[in-house]
Amino acid sequence: LRNVSLSTAGLYPVASIAAAATAFGAGQVLGGSGFLAVYLTGLAIGSTNSPAARTVQTFHDGLAWVAQIVLFVTLGLLVFPSQLPGVALESLAITVLLLAVARPVGVVIGTLGCRFSGRERVALSWAGLRGGVPVVLATFPLIEGLDGSLLFFNVVFFAVLVSTVMQGTTFEVVAARLGVTTNEATLPAVLTDQESTRRLGAEVIEFGVRDGDAAVGRMVRELQMPRAALLNVIIRGEEAIPPRGSTRVMEGDRLHVLVRQEVAVEFRALLERWRSGPLEVAERPRPRRTSLIFSERPWKEADGDASNPQAVGPVLVVDRLRTRRDKPGSVVVLEDGRYAFVGTSVAAGSAFAVQRAARRRLGRATDAAEISWWREVIGALAT
Fold it and tell me: How many structural domains are present in the chain?
């Protein structure tokens, strides 16, 4: 699936089902295990960086829930509760053997060479819940009509039931007593849920860069993105590149941009310019001697939008190097060759002088957003 380009992301789950069906059929025809072939196919698909891996995973999560419902309904039809008391002693003996001997020994062997503490190994041993898989495997002799298959099925089912009740209801308590619990999530939350993003008033748009596009060869800061749009990542081949202002866009790149709804129309017009131009960047004039004068003052409302200033005083802005995201602010190049940062105040002068002013503010900053912004200003003036 990694090397297949389908017209829509919704076809990738269909392709995964087709791959699994093909694997099952091939395994059966060749005299092997179709179930094992499907398992290996799923393992391969799950470890592949396909273009729609998240879509495939979400689809199969839902499919797994449906399969579990069907599985347990089927198992319920096969079980006769009146027959379970007759296998209670054998099942309890097997369960005790599993809990006290087999599982702990398996955990110790399986974690050799791993940095697990004794408490963590105990928790792993107690986490060995028996689930639907052993019961499903126990149905195979039943389906084949082998002698004693019903007794075998009932014993396995009872053992699974006891294990689930005992371990399932006590595992959290045992883990807490052992001190191996944490409030942190096992896996980080996925942040690319399109529906959630849309509900929050934004959308993630992918722009594929083609040969001859106006965006080819441009630096990210030259893409003229509005303040309410953010380039999240550049996918280049098999690599995800965190974009910087100086990162150049290349043919074949896929740009993932987070766009607020209020600039959606403006941004779609920008996409046309990325495709066919123009994306002209004003040439920076050489500083004149008088342009080295450093000045600093408060930024007033009459001066305009600090995120997109057209001028600083009487001097026009010819380039915008950085735009602040959390509040109005930017780093710009002036027509007379000076640099300036704009926000609650404005400082203009040589790159060195403005950078020094930014360092003073960085030294006084206590808020994380402020610290991040002043570091970005200093970095922009250093390039």
Answer: 4
